[in-house]
Amino acid sequence: YEAAAMIIHDGRRKAKWTHEEIEWAQLDKMKMLSTQTAMAVGLRGCLYPNLVIKTHIQTNAATGSTMSVARQAIQRGGYRALWRGFLTNQTGVIPAHSVYVTGLEWSKQHITRAANNWGCKPGTSSHIGSFIGGATAASCAQLVRTPTDVIAQRLMIQGSKGSQTTYRNGFHALQTIVRTEGFRGLYAGLGAAVLVSVPFSAMFWSSYTTLKSHIGHSMTHAAAYSAQVFGGGEDEIEIEVTQMAYFRPPFGVWEAMVFSSAAFISSCVALAVTNPIDLVKTRIQTKAKTGRTAEGGRLAQSGAGILQHLFSIVKYEGWGSLSKGFSSRVMTSGPFAVLGILVYEGTKHYAQKDKPTRC
After folding, report:
1. Which of 27, 54, 94, 188 is deepest in the core (most CB within 10 A)?
2. How does pLDDT run along the chain (359 residues), one tens digit per residue?
3. For residue 178, which of 152, 202, 147 has the smallest C-alpha distance?
4. What angle in degrees, to the nearest 10, is found between the helix axes of 29-58 and 86-117?
5. pTM, two decimal places
């Protein structure tokens, strides 16, 4: 059994990267979900200050570079300002991540099988399954976490010039929003949130599936060539390259390089595409009363739609403003994607039922 391997073809000095996916039906669900959720909580906790900074930048609650905005936040509220809304945010992350993983794996397995039955090639089937699986997972998870996102983001900008209301804590924010805006207030910006998370997730998983294969092939050919140039006979080439692939547990260093490279590139591409809508989503959910212009603040206060916000940002703040918060998102999502994908792939091996013996 080989979940990922480098195969050397004797006599031709050619290498082939193979990766066999572990399906949802093969996994111990409790192990998979508990490990994945613990990983999500831990990583998001470490990267949470970047999320706070991104929210300040996108709402114009503070201006300047990422480090400058961080300093401004610390000056106003101390280092605790970088952790405002953390517990509220995590309250949504825990159930949402379980829903996300379940939706991703279940959808990916069934869509891939359906595509195979329709006559699609294996690579195409996997690509379709990953795309639709990612979109399905994000749609389900967003319904769970939007209320806590709304509350956490309003807590994040408290004390800044963009803050509309002062909340004592997350529970007080929940009561205030429900009393003044109704339960609909907890789902402010849901449409924009879906337009960010669904394309991001779909693009990330489909790109990751494709890049994992291409990067794996390229790096394996490079390893085989290196082994040919600096190694000796056929046996030495095969031993050297496969040792790089099979450094356990739960997968090799070579495999980890392939997984993390594919994840980081996929994450950056998806972040760039979805950043303008993420900017609008943040302004709608925080109802920040500030903007580079009075028009920006008025739209946030009046509950304007996505297109109105986009047109206003381009008209009054320029096209460049659509990239606001991108660097902070990369600083958060980039490491999360790399570390998260390594834990994800490792967890699938750990949670696999009836593991076959690795050769």
Report:
1. 54
2. 334 444 444 444 445 556 667 788 888 888 888 888 888 888 888 889 888 888 888 877 777 778 888 888 888 888 888 888 899 999 998 999 999 999 999 999 999 999 988 888 877 888 899 999 999 999 999 999 999 999 998 888 877 666 667 888 889 999 999 998 899 889 988 888 899 999 999 999 999 988 988 887 777 666 666 655 555 444 444 444 444 444 444 566 777 888 899 999 999 999 999 999 988 888 888 776 555 554 555 665 566 678 888 888 888 888 888 888 888 888 888 888 998 898 888 888 888 876 654 44
3. 147
4. 120
5. 0.79
DSSP 263-317: HHHHHHHHHHHHHHHHHHHHHHHHT-S--SSHHHHHHHHHT--HHHHHHHHHHHH
CA 30 – CA 34 distance, rounded (Å): 6
CA 311 vs. chain centroid, Å, equals 27
Question: Within 10 Å of residue 337's Cβ, how many Cβ atoms?
Answer: 25
Q: Which of 205, 223, 236 is nearest to 17 (CA)?
A: 223
Residue 37 dihedral angles phi and psi, to the nearest 5°:
-65, -40
